[in-house]
């Protein structure tokens, strides 16, 4: 008699996860005056689910507001939380020789 168990095909190992996206200051500024919570979480290097958990506990590291059913994160405080300048600085304002 058979035991009733069937053999399963071996499962291939999962592909490694993609490397997290690295945000530049210019890309963050290009988001506009505010962005959604998932994008802000990506900028801060955290998962979307972790961001929602923090925001529900009122512990998200950046000020936020709610627009209807969605959370919005202003980009100026997001830049400040990352210790980045809010506005671009002139690299070399004096004319060269």
Low-confidence stretches: none
User: Distance between the terminal alpha carbons, to the nearest Å?
Assistant: 93 Å
Which shape, going by the Cα principal axes?
A: elongated
Specify the number of helices: 4
Total strand count, please? Answer: 3
What is the H-and-E element order? HEHHEEH
What are the defining features of this structure?
single chain, 97 residues, alpha+beta, 3-stranded antiparallel beta sheet, 30% helix
Description:
The protein has four helices and three strands; from the N terminus they run αβααββα. The protein is of the alpha+beta class and 97 residues long. A hairpin with a 2-residue loop joins β2 (65-67) and β3 (70-74). The protein is elongated.
Secondary structure topology:
Layout: H1 25-29, E1 34-36, H2 37-44, H3 48-56, E2 65-67, E3 70-74, H4 75-81
Antiparallel strand pairs: 1-3, 2-3
Task: Give a short overview.
30% of the residues lie in helices and 11% in strands. The chain is α+β, with helices and mostly antiparallel strands and 97 residues long.
């Amino acid at each position: 008699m058979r035991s009733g168990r069937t053999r399963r095909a071996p499962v291939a190992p999962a592909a490694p996860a993609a490397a997290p996206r690295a945000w530049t200051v210019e890309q963050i500024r290009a988001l506009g005056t505010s962005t959604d919570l998932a994008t802000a979480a990506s900028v801060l290097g955290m998962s979307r689910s972790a961001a929602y958990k923090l925001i529900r506990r009122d512990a998200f590291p950046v000020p936020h507001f709610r627009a209807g059913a969605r959370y919005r994160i202003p980009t100026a405080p997001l830049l400040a939380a990352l210790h980045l300048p809010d506005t671009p600085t002139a690299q070399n304002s004096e004319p060269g020789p």
